[in-house]
Amino acid sequence: MQCLRQQGSGQLGRAAGQRPAAAPRLSLPCSAPGARGGRRASSSRGSLATRGLAESPAAPASSQARSPSSAAGAVATGPDAEFESFCAASAAGANVVPLYRRLLSDQLTPVTVYRCLVKENDVNAPSFLLESVVNGDQTGRYSFVGAMPALEVVATQSRVTVLNHAAGTRRVTEEEDPLDVPVQLSRNWRPAQVEGLPAVFTGGWVGYAGYDTVRYVYGGKIPFESSPHDDRQLPDLHLALYNDVVVIDQATKLIYAISWVHLDGDAAVPASPAAAAASPPAGARDRAALRAAYDAGRARLDHLVSLLQTPPPPLAQGLVDLSLAQLPASPGRSNMTEGGFLGAIARAKEYILSGDIFQLVLSQRFERRTFAQPFEVYRALRVVNPSPYMVYMQARGCVIVSSSPEILCRVDGTRVVTNRPLAGTRRRGADAAADAALEEELLADAKERAEHVMLVDLGRNDVGKVCESGSVVVEKLMEVERYSHVMHISSTVTGKLQRGLDCWDALRAALPAGTVSGAPKVRAMQIIDELEVNRRGPYGGGVGHVSFTGAMDMALGLRTMVIPSAAVDTMYSYNGADSRREWAVHIQAGAGLVADSVPEKEYEETINKAAALGRAVDLAEQAFVRAQGH
């Protein structure tokens, strides 16, 4: 198929600046556990799975300061080789430098690595586990785990709280655009690129931008005042900065324990232009100060390795005694009655027929109460619905358990922006022949094709807002992707990010995905505010990471369970000395409405989508709760 091209459509976001040069590339020795020196780690670069962004050679985002392009030269040898290379990184201009160790992974899985870092009863500790399954049955090469962030940015409407855990400080401000806060915090980073580390996410921001962050982008067109009732009071934006990250390489069977060291002081205090200008020039940092920073980083790294080398308490094995394909009779109690949802569909169709919009994505939220713990639900979801973006994230006010199939915004290390709309769905067949027949039926469905083409047009427009003129390409058009239980029509739109813009600008352009809003976007969002009864929260936003190099990979918040951390009516179950608390699992699902939509079918579609995730709750209850006599 010939690639389709589109002219760029201007800039979005902050005023354009100068694109930084590439960060210095160094060869830091990788020490064996317990040793100060050690041989240099061999490079493990190769083909990357869904989550493996090609961050190398990576230019930091334009929100970060210029880094010199020269490398540090030969690697020192001897017992202090790592420290000498650390100093060389500073001399080359880097002010954020990673230290790392490698461990064999044959005794650890992503799940047990997470449990090494976060104890079972510590459900409020900010932390994450990111995994990937591609094409329904192929495990992604890399998994990522992090805990104990250095700082957090938490925004509710315009109120922003920056929690600096390292310094023990809390700063609260009112911001016109809270999305600018992490940009300002990271604008002067000059990360060193170290040979021997895989070219994937190794540290940086991890968190979510909820659906309502679109109000930061579109301002008065969709103000917070017009939004539905906010019954959960969750943050609209939560991003945590992880200097200590564990990367699990499934191909080489190695684990990388990584600790990033900030050489210019507190990572939570954005340097003013004057302060940045006054910082020590490359090579001028005091050697004693470098030794202190290095020793502090090594102490953090030693602690991280010790956690990985301390086996966690055994996890419950979990017997699977139910059919994974069978859906629950009901996904739970909805925040809308059936009549109310059908009435909202009818009203949406009136807007479509009057020409206000072409398409609208209307959703409802289901609540399922369970005594299964959130991490047990995640363990079950890995089995029931593996996907390219498997997420377990303990955030402020909630736990996010997600199996999203779709990219919201990806910007790789070569500044290529990717948008990949998914729309059009069929269940998987019982065998290859049935799969082929269903795929043919899906591609022949005029309604599904029309909806998908509309979303591709939205994707081209979103990418074109921030990409160079003539660089926007539809690389794949209307291909069928197969997942564990369903197949989708997929297209891929890419473009080259404009000079002076960064991944945060690309995220602003992508919010919200047409898959969860409609077309045209602004009018569709205004109608969603009118017809839906509660704020969406993380549903329909983005969940993912932004690396120190400026690469971004944000999944769309679909097939996502949001589990609030607290409720006033929490029940408890007791079995002798063992007790379990009740959790409210929120599952939101939507349907894309067009002029010829049949309301009853669209309502049923939301039920089926939510029920598919509800099956993970069923499995968690069967495998863990009832197995313990609750």
Describe what this molecule looks like in 3D:
The protein has 630 residues and is an alpha+beta fold. Among the domains are: 20-308, no CATH class; 416-496, no CATH class. The protein contains 13 helices and 31 strands. The strands form five sheets. Strands 1, 8, 9, 10, 12, 13, 20, 21, 22, 23, 24, 26 and 27 form a 13-stranded antiparallel β-sheet that branches. It is globular, with a radius of gyration of 24 Å. Belongs to the anthranilate synthase component I family. InterPro entries: ADC_synthase (IPR005801), Anth_synth_I-like (IPR019999), Anth_synth_I_N (IPR006805), Anth_synth_I_PabB (IPR005256), Chorismate_C (IPR015890).
What's a concise summary of this model?
By secondary structure, this protein is an alpha+beta fold. It is 26% helix and 28% strand.
Briefly note the structural class of the backbone.
Answer: alpha+beta
Coarse shape: globular
The average pLDDT is 85
Please give the radius of gyration in angstroms: 24 Å
β content, as a range? Answer: 25-35%
DSSP strand tally: 31
Helix content: 25-40%
Distance between the termini: 56 Å
Low-confidence stretches: 1-22, 31-79, 268-273
Helix segment tally: 13
Major sheet, described briefly?
13 strands, antiparallel
